[in-house]
Amino acid sequence: MKHTFIILDDNSESILKTLAVAASFQNLHFIASAKSYKDGLNLILEHQPTFVFLEIDPENKESNLSLLLINELYRFLKVLPQIIVTSNNKELAFEAIQYQVLDFFIKPLEENNLRKTLLKFEKANQTSTFTNNLQPSYIAQDRADEGITIVNEIPVIHQEVIEENDSVISIEKNSQENEENTTEDSRLPIKKNHNSKETSKEEKPLIICVKSYGDYRFIEAKDICYLQADNNSTDIHLFNGEMVTAFKTLKHFENVLVSPFVRIHNSYIVNIEYVSRIHTGNSVCYIKNTTTKLPFSKSYKENVDAIINSITNGNYLEI
After folding, report:
1. Residues 16-68 pLDDT 10s
2. 55: closest CA among 29, 77, 34?
3. Distance between CA 269 and CA 79 in Å, rounded?
4. How many angstroms separate the CA atoms of 21 and 262, rounded?
5. I need a labelling partner for 122 at 20 to 30 A (CA). Which of 62, 148, 195, 278 fits?
6. Cα Rg of the chain, angstroms
């Protein structure tokens, strides 16, 4: 299978060296190169390549090439290209891994190292495709060691663990297929879990575990007021005033958290259980029992309208 790639580097000689190595692989097809953040972003959005070779410590600082490009891509793309970092600064390797890049190479790029990375990528894709095509009963057999229990081909408990170096976010939740609530009264973009049986065990509360250097911090999701983006990490603000930092982007939390968490801004996800007031004129919402005001942006206006609909759809009296 052919894979396309783009090279983002401010050094012309480095571009040629990377291109020379990549050209030795018949399944890689070169699209273009760019020497700046802006030009590189435009190239990626236009061509949406499989791989991007990215320099994150450019000689020309005005090129603005950095890992922040990955955060920007989350704004526009559902599926991001695989980022392969190339740099002379090995001290940036840990930071690059936090961004979940495919690999990190010290320049100059070596053919054998790239071959190993491509083989791992192909193997992962083949495994994913094979698993997705299996019938549920076979999935239960092959993935039993991942903490998935299936009874009568219906997943009951799903233990999802997201690992990244010394940071782990562990989430236990019901893994029945989620469906969006799309009724006319409430357009809240929240996924809810549904049981196929009338009588079922009470669902366990969602627990988030933030691990750092052997320190396990367990947080009940219901205690979270809101989450705030901080570059490549996320600050979790609790109802008791505490703040816990997790080395995951806000986009990751948006993907794994369901009702009652709603994204209202590029930098904020709010738990609607703690929303006490929404001022549409000032584009802010207030957090209960605090002076905190969270802004919401126009791009998430529909989410805010849906929050209002959800609150007013319950036991509600308007005066």
Report:
1. 999 999 988 989 999 999 999 999 999 999 999 999 999 999 999 999 999 99
2. 34
3. 21
4. 45
5. 148
6. 22
Question: CB within 8 A of 9, min separation 6: which ones?
Answer: 15, 18, 33, 35, 53, 54, 55, 58, 65, 86
Residues 54, 56, 62, 63, Cα dihedral to 10° = 0
**Of the candidates 250, 211, 232, which has an alpha carbon nearest to the alpha carbon of residue 95?**
232
The half-sphere exposure of 32 on its side-chain side, counting CA atoms within 13 A, is 13
Tell me whether strands 167-173 and 207-212 are parallel, antiparallel or unpaired. Answer: antiparallel
**Is pLDDT at 164 greater than 80 in this prediction?**
no
Give the tokens for residue 129.
Answer: 């495709």
Q: Where are the beta strands (DSSP E) in 115-274?
A: 148-151, 154-164, 167-173, 179-180, 191-192, 207-212, 215-220, 224-230, 233-238, 243-246, 261-265, 268-271
Q: Are strands 51-55 and 82-87 parallel, antiparallel or unpaired?
A: parallel
* CA atoms of 50 and 124, how far apart (whole Å): 14
Helix (H, G, I), strand (E, B) or coil at 234: strand
